[in-house]
Design a protein that fits this description.
Blueprint lengths: L3 H10 L1 H14 L5 E9 L5 E9 L4 H12 L11 E9 L10
Antiparallel strand pairs: 1-2, 1-3
Helix pairs in contact: 2-3
């Protein structure tokens, strides 16, 4: 089957796109942070046939919809394995802001 490491590598590849969505939401709600837990099915051809929000501690339904949509476009690469359904958490935390004094 697909290893946790293989799945993590693909999610890491898409991390920037998730944070672009998140940073857009931060403009409307600067204190937004938390975790979304997704349930997804990865097919043998690497496509995602199902993705749904299992839970979230964030009050950001638009962001959740966008994240689920983005995951549905991901490809994990073809592999001679059966389809697998996993639960995957994504943490969203604002980048630490550094202040520079002149």
């Amino acid at each position: 089957s697909r290893t946790d490491e293989e799945i993590q590598i693909v999610f890491d590849r898409y991390k920037a796109s998730f944070y672009r969505l998140y940073n857009r939401e931060l403009r409307n709600n600067p204190s937004l942070k938390g975790q979304m837990v997704l349930r997804l099915t990865i097919e043998p051809d690497g496509s995602v046939s199902m993705c749904a929000l299992q839970s979230s501690d964030m009050d950001a339904p638009d962001l959740a919809t966008q994240v689920v949509g983005r995951v549905r476009t991901m490809n994990f690469g073809a592999k001679d394995v059966p389809a697998v359904t996993i639960v995957y958490p994504i943490d969203f935390l604002p980048a630490a802001r550094r202040w520079e004094w002149a």
